[in-house]
Amino acid sequence: MDSNKHPITSDTETKSESTLQTAKASADLAGFAGTAGILAGSAEHSSMAEPVTRHALIPLLDNFQYLLCGFDSLDLGLFVEWGTDWPVVLKALQGFKEKAQKIGEFVEDITPDRKCVFFPNGKGDNYSFHLQFPEFHLYIAKSEKFGNSPNVYLSINSETMWNKGVDHALNLVKEDLRYFGGKIDSILPSRLDICADFKLSPGLTLPFIEEHTVCRSRDLRPIIKGGTLETCYFGSPAAPIRLRIYDKGKEVLKKGEKLWFADLWGTSDLENIWRVEFQLRRPALKQLKINDFEDLWQRPGGVWNYLTGEWFSLRLRDNDRQDRRTIHPWWQEVQACGERLGKDIRIRRDFSSNSHASALFFISHIAGCLPSFAVRVKTRDYREAILSLGKALYEHWGKRDFDGEVIKRAIKLGQVIESTGGAHGTA
Predict the structure, then answer these.
(1) Alpha carbon distance 359, 255 (integer Å)
(2) Each residue of 42-53: b (16+ CB within 10 Å) or e?
């Protein structure tokens, strides 16, 4: 996927080319009724909505129509190199924070064209300073140099993601950091909210959800107001993966802050527009092999396939074995959003620790150990310390089977590394 584009698709872009077709289900689905909004001329999508149990009575169902899918919000860890004026910048940031602690959050001019709000508190123990711009929240640590963890945290808001895109936000944050003397060295995806929106008629009910859910998490938390289901959470708030299925149209109408979604959806009727939204934290992104910014744009379709196929699905109770149950017709259309999001690839979740960490992780780890090594070899010169470390590593692996160890670890990562024909360590 082109990293310059937001992974967003909507039927409003192809409305002249598509028509709604009626899909059928293989059982009477109590508490819910729906048909898929299928792109006309798409044999694959049409076949996905075909009934499986053809000998059963197949009642006609009401409508469900695809509207939109993509990234709703994105948090990125930024490894930032600060300039020689960092002590001055740090003192200024500390002064802004102390001012906010005295008078409350306040607006500050960063440049003639950029304003932000300074907050009295940061984020957790790592990020002391909190700045909010119209497009994102920016959290800055006190440390001049980054280590294993990012020293700046960027949280891009929903409106920017849908209407402007990630590149727009990154270009702005680069300029904002440049004002403080900072330059982005690398980017680490930290949290991703990925979603799909559908017009349902009628809306979802808790009995329907409970009847058809197949989920890896047993933590179900519904929110019901006035006897009507508004939200269902699957997974705890701190879990690596959490699913939220909720009435997005009602939320937009109630808060009145995101009415611009109506333009994206292509409708002024916001009743019963339901969102399927997965929240993935850093551990889950790592397990799904999203270790750098490029991975984020190469794997969204595969990630969606895993989330809606293996982690959660809605299925008919037509088999004692959950994995053999027929997928609900509406959920088939939810799964089809994987093709809209990107390449249709199969992704397996890897639970082994650090098995797919990026090269940056190991560079940061080694760099963090270098000062301690320098103390042992009694030098304050980092160049001399690096040369001493290199010599020690050369002698260490010269007596061991380095090539064999590399091959073994490459196999475990599912990779093939061709021989360079160079020297090999020997056992």
Answers:
(1) 44
(2) eeebeebbeeee
List the beta bridge partners of residue 387: none
Give residue limits of the domains in the chain.
Answer: 9-71+192-341, 84-180, 359-412
Q: Compute the distance between CA of residue 277 and CA of residue 346 in angstroms, rounded to an integer.
A: 20
Q: State whether residue 16 is helix, strand or coil.
A: helix
Statement: residue 209 has pLDDT above 80 = yes
Task: Output phi, psi for 129, to 5 deg.
Answer: -120, 135
The residue whose two tokens read 């994105």 is 74
Q: What is the DSSP letter of 85?
A: T
What dihedral do alpha carbons 312, 313, 315, 320 form, nearest 10°? -30
CA–CA dist 35, 25 (Å, integer): 9
pLDDT of residue 420: 60
According to DSSP, the residues that pair with 65 across neighbouring strands are 199
pTM of the full structure: 0.71
Q: 138 forms bridges with which residues in the sheet?
A: 131, 154
Q: CB burial class (10 A; 0-12, 13-18, 19+) of residue 223?
A: middle
Q: Which two tokens stand for residue 386?
A: 């690096």
Strand residues in 201-272 grouped as ranges (E): 213-215, 220-225, 228-234, 241-247
pLDDT, average across residues 140-156: 92
